[in-house]
Amino acid sequence: QVQLVESGGGLVQAGGSLRLSCAASGRTFSPYAMGWFRQAPGKEREFVLSITWSTGSTSYTDSVKGRFTISRDNAKNTVYLQMNSLKPEDTAVYYCAARTRGASYGYWGQGTQVTVSS
Q1: What phi and psi values does residue 76 have, to the nearest 5 degrees?
Q2: DSSP letter, residue 72
Q3: CA separation, residue 29 to residues 51, 74, 78, 88 (Å)
Q4: At a CB cut-off of 8 Å and minimum separation 6, what does 102 contact?
């Protein structure tokens, strides 16, 4: 069983930065990709960005390009989300997720709250 644990959320003023971490543990962990999703109050969960575990190739949703960066540390089974120039509309619960090749995201963390004040 793979477990994903997020950390690093909190309250920050608009224009500030936060760094989220997602540590994976459990049985042999060999994902194809890991990603970050977010869910704002009253809205559906949405894809934010992802990284392919072996190559480091990344994908971003347009609203975070140039502000958010995803990276990973394969040795630590950890993925990071660096968020800069935060906006109030970035306020959401952020979830870490992992998937194997050819599958949808099937492993999820518990989520961490990010609140950006104006």
Answers
A1: -100, 0
A2: E
A3: 15, 10, 11, 35
A4: 32
Q: Are 91 and 37 in contact (CB under 8 A)?
A: no
Q: Identify the DSSP state of 18.
A: E
**Cα first-last separation, the chain:** 40
Q: Which amino acid appears at position 72 of this protein?
A: R
Q: Are 79 and 22 in contact (CB under 8 A)?
A: yes
34, 56 in Cβ contact below 8 A?
Answer: no
d(CA 18, CA 92): 13
Quickly list DSSP for 43-85: S--EEEEEEETTT--EEE-GGGTTTEEEEEEGGGTEEEEEE-S
Residue-wise pLDDT for 8-46, tens only, equals 999 999 999 999 999 998 877 788 999 999 999 999 999
Supply 5's token pair.
């644990």
- The string of pLDDT tens digits covering residues 38-73 is 999 999 999 999 999 999 999 999 999 999 999 999
Confirm if 26 and 1 have CB atoms less than 8 A apart.
yes
